[in-house]
Design goal:
By secondary structure, this protein is an alpha+beta fold. It is about 50% helix and about 15% strand. The protein is elongated.
């Protein structure tokens, strides 16, 4: 199975959709990640991902339309094919920040529910 590589991230969902349309018009399968989280919590943005087998073709299309591929995707292009096939699973600082933000949101919601149900003391 091919690995998905993040090639770009956007703060606006529609920008990711535009790039997806351009890539899909050239028969490149595109996946959008975190599109529903963008309005609530911007950490890392809305991500556009493609298969590692489509990476070179995606870079050509992006350059044709004035987009720049992110550094992570460019580093995959520089690796040998044997290295590209091994999955990369690391906990990044962005992942840690997301977890902390989600925990804080849950705590806030619980506090709001608790204080909403408390009677007022006169």
């Amino acid at each position: 199975m091919d690995n998905l590589i993040e090639i770009a991230a956007f703060s606006v969902v529609n920008d990711a959709y535009i790039l997806r349309s351009l890539l899909e018009s050239k028969d490149i399968h595109v996946y959008i990640q975190d599109e529903n989280m963008a309005p609530f919590l911007y950490i890392g943005g809305v991500k556009v991902l493609v298969s590692n087998t489509d990476l070179n073709k995606a870079k050509e299309v992006m350059e044709e339309y004035g987009y720049q591929m992110n550094e992570q995707a460019n580093s995959f292009l520089d690796e040998t094919p044997a290295q590209t096939e091994t999955p990369r699973t690391t906990l990044t600082s962005k992942t840690g920040i997301r977890i902390i933000a989600i925990v804080l949101i849950v705590i806030l919601v619980v506090l709001l529910l608790v204080f909403n149900n408390m009677p007022f003391i006169n």
